[in-house]
Amino acid sequence: MTSAYVLNGPNLNLLGMREPETYGTATLADVERSCRDVAEELGWTLEFRQTNREGELVDWIQEAGAAQSTGEAVGVVLNAAAYTHTSVALQDAIIGSGARVIELHISNVHRRESYRHVSHVSPVAAGIIVGFGVAGYPMALRALAELSA
Ligand code: DQA
């Protein structure tokens, strides 16, 4: 069965408690449930993960790229959180692994501090979903379905 990866970076484990005026009150478990519903509808299994460690995100992107190359995965929805704005390693992992990545941000990063306007993921992403709150996650999975059809 084909799988889709939803990978979440640092501090997203705090979703629901963390700056609710910016990120809303849904928890990461709520987000996972909404993603599982859509994945089931699309006939995919779901790898839904969160880490506070940059290298772990690199490992998971490589894993997803390898699975994609054998037809076992459709790609990645990636909310790299703060690493979006700092990590050349994530960009290299996306290029090197060939993973199809939809970049996602819950908040509209372009309405926020200027350091959030820089993304090392955007230049290598297949598409970008920004500012729709946690509703962006199921949208991003549907976008993966469009792109991989
Ligand atoms: C975020 C935006 C990032 O700038 C921030 O560091 C996050 C979350 C978002 O989903 O809106 O942690 O990726």
In short:
With 149 residues, the chain is α/β, with parallel strands linked by helices. The protein is built from 5 helices and 5 strands, in the order βααβαβαββα. 39% of the residues lie in helices and 19% in strands.
Account of the protein in words:
By secondary structure, the chain is α/β, with parallel strands linked by helices. Helices cover about 40% and strands about 20% of the residues. It is built from 5 helices and 5 strands. The protein has a 5-stranded parallel beta sheet, with helices on both faces. Helix 4 links the parallel strand 3 and strand 4. Helix 2 packs parallel to helix 5 and helix 3 runs parallel beside helix 4. The chain is globular. The chain starts with a strand and ends with a helix. The mean pLDDT is about 95. The structure holds 1,3,4-trihydroxy-5-OXO-cyclohexanecarboxylic acid (DQA). 1,3,4-trihydroxy-5-OXO-cyclohexanecarboxylic acid binds next to loops. 1,3,4-trihydroxy-5-OXO-cyclohexanecarboxylic acid (DQA) binds next to loops.
Defining traits:
149 residues; alpha/beta; five-stranded parallel β-sheet; 5 strands; 19% strand; binds 1,3,4-trihydroxy-5-OXO-cyclohexanecarboxylic acid
The percentage helix is 25-40%
Number of helices: 5
- What structural class do helix, strand and pairing data support? alpha/beta
Write down the oligomeric state. single chain
**Strand neighbour order, sheet with most strands:** 2-1-3-4-5
Q: What hetero molecules are bound to the protein chains?
A: 1,3,4-trihydroxy-5-OXO-cyclohexanecarboxylic acid
Number of strands: 5
The parts where pLDDT drops under 50 for at least 5 residues are none
N-to-C series of helices and strands: EHHEHEHEEH
> Overall mean pLDDT score?
97
**Percent range for β-strand residues:** 15-25%
> Globular, elongated, flat, extended or rod-shaped: what is the shape?
globular
Backbone CA Rg:
14 Å
Distance N to C terminus:
15 Å
Largest sheet: 5 strands, parallel
